[in-house]
Amino acid sequence: MAQRAKIDPLRSFPSSRKWGRRESRSRLVQSFLDKQAISHPCHSERSTFERSENLRSRGVFSRSKDSTTPFVFTSFRRALLVGAFVALSCLSVVIGGCASGPRIMGETTPILAELIPVKLLRPFQNATALSIDQFLNVYVVESSANSVIKLSRNGDSLREVSGFGSDHYQFNGPSDVDAHLTNAIFIADRFNHRIEQYTKNLNYTSTLYTRDNTNPATRFGYPAAVAVDDAGNIYVADGENKRVLKARSDFSVERIIGGYSEAARPDAVLSNPIDLAIAGDEHLVVLDNGGSSLVEFDNLGNLLARRELASPAKAICASNDTVFVLSAEEPSVQLVLGTGLAPLGAWHIQRNAEDTSQAEDIGVRGGAIYFLTQQGVYACRLQLFAGLLSR
Known about the structure:
By secondary structure, the chain is mainly beta. It is 14% helix and 38% strand.
């Protein structure tokens, strides 16, 4: 691939007539990069390492003495850095919100890096979803086997809950898992119409079930996805009613998001939510319309942005203020700013010739990246394309 020109982060912004002096634009660049815990490219490596303890405490990028741990913080940081410049150069579009209607993303998104699976942690027959806790343990849902498996970051099997039925420790077509809180694991049990809560060791705790409620505004059925924010609020992709239900940590229903009756404007109505992610500022990002669009809401359910995708997506996840969109058809991951849904760039996925099964999910946390297909879960690393970042 041809070498690309150097990127001047300051020239990526609109003219000084709009943003003021060059120094102001520089501060705007650094403000954005600080949100992603990335150093400005003009900063010395020493200043970057001086911030390492702060980065580790925020769970963004860290080092590990375990060589098998899939830490890719350097390439990950640089890939997001390039994406930051792309997003900020389009900042005037983002500020416009949804006033100009949905935007399309995909065909012109720059490829920033190659995502390379380096280790098969475990093979599966029909894996469908994954989630990562703060210790980089991986929880994998195998829907056809009605099982949820906890793996260490090295691939060791730590715990498994498996069985068909409607009792606790049994599932009927589990569709998703969320391990964001680490000590509380939430599992979407699709055909039992419930969200099951387990401990980090997969011991049963409680159940969120509202399908028999007399108030239709509190019901959900056939949950397609579940996501939990830092406050313990639970978001459920309601497959039966084509909306998102938000419940508090005590399982009381707080509100409906994206429902036809609740939406304040037509483009806030969801049509078929299939996955959820919690981005920066506790914003909810919904993969809607069967995977063809992204919709962003604040935690009160107000629409903030909607973006149509150039090709269908299979799953999404978020890390800090970046949303990662796994393509359903192409071996790629789109990177999107969690606030405003501006495109940051893309990763191309290097697929294993021995595993050509459907890509199902992706997880990004603490600088680690895991890629899930129907036949296996892989620890990955990033390889930047030559000349992408020459500074």
